[in-house]
What we know:
The protein is mostly helical. It is about 75% helix and about 0% strand.
Amino acid sequence: VKMYDRYKVVRAVIRKCMREYPADDWYKQALYDLERILASVINDGVIKNRVKRLKYDHGIFSRLRRILRNEDKQSKEGVEKRMKRFLAFIESKAKSDSRYKSLADQIKRCWCGLFHTYEDARLPRTNNDMEGLIKEQRRKWRRMTGTTNVDEWIVYHAPTGIYLFNLIGVSPPLEKLGFSTDLREILSSVRYETFRNCVNEYEKRRNKDRIRKRANRNIDELLMSVLEKNKILVSVG
């Protein structure tokens, strides 16, 4: 659409140059040729209809975007009222043009989740806003923990967090369940074999993660090191 509009502007400039240029030489002939090429695109019926339809659809989606962005800070009820009017408009369009039926169906399918965030300004309104929030949270998480992968950090450190959650506080959950929250009693109730198994499992996970990160950085270097270690094992064997 932008290219089509740009063609029209360029064609208007070329026509003005043709009128103002007095000589009838190769330059004016080049202007004629260029104007003829642009005219073949601008006057094409199929292209004109497609551009017209795209502009109309762009206006519809711009209206939908303005409603969901809620830049004038309407309440949940106000946004929902606007969306109902928009949905009625789309459904009326869908009766004569099947292209709008999928949009109407999608709005109705997602209706229950469209408006509940407008009561809290801290919650993102759109997918793009949500992705931006997640990116910002990951950046803060990396600064706090030194790791970019939230899942890995949870796998390694969540047990410690759960223990602290159950032990610390005025009324810890374990105490409510009738368990002792005395750290000495808790530690003495755990067998040493169980403790070693947990430590070994943690080390295995950390080693796997270290190998995976090395592969992500330089897979060729990792494979070469594996081959070298394999040669050493073969020679020893």
